[in-house]
């Protein structure tokens, strides 16, 4: 029997989309306008990432590969946007549950996570991949962690 292939799909920092969402926030502030009801405005510690599915079917979630260069925490939230979204008007209802929370404690070598939520989230991503070529994620960095200090991917059995 042929051995199952591993497929590692990296998180790609979508700087252009992140910038566009920040401009929306600035525009509202400058015009002294309120966001739409339920609109999610990007905070300074939040960034948009995407995963491009080079294969969409027969994916079985194996694990997260999240590496943090320093102590801190990153929260990974999936969005329900399809194809090429305009996330500048991202609504809270478009944020998926559960979220993946990954952290590294001072002095620790390994990144930890809430295993149950991370497993459920990974399985949900494998299901969503069947109808999406790209999936967008909102990553929230806390405890001084920044995007340059993260390297992450999702590993599937294909």
TrEMBL record:
The lineage of its organism: Eukaryota, Metazoa, Chordata, Craniata, Vertebrata. This is OMP protein. Gene3D superfamilies: Olfactory marker. It holds the Pfam family Olfactory_mark. One of its GO terms (biological process) is sensory perception of smell.
């Amino acid at each position: 029997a042929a051995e199952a292939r591993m497929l590692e799909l990296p998180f790609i920092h979508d700087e252009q989309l992140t910038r566009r969402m920040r401009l929306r926030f600035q525009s509202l502030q400058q015009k002294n306008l309120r966001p739409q009801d339920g609109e999610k405005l990007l905070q300074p510690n939040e960034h948009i990432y995407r995963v491009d599915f080079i294969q969409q079917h027969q994916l079985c979630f194996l694990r997260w590969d999240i590496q943090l260069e320093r102590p801190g925490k990153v929260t990974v939230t999936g969005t329900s946007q399809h194809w090429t979204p305009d996330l500048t008007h991202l609504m809270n209802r478009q944020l998926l549950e559960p979220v993946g929370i990954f952290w590294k404690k001072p002095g620790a070598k390994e990144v930890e996570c809430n295993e149950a939520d991370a497993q459920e989230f990974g399985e949900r991503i494998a299901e969503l991949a069947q109808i999406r070529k790209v999936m967008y994620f909102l990553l929230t960095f806390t405890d001084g962690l920044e995007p340059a200090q993260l390297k992450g991917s999702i590993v599937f059995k294909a």
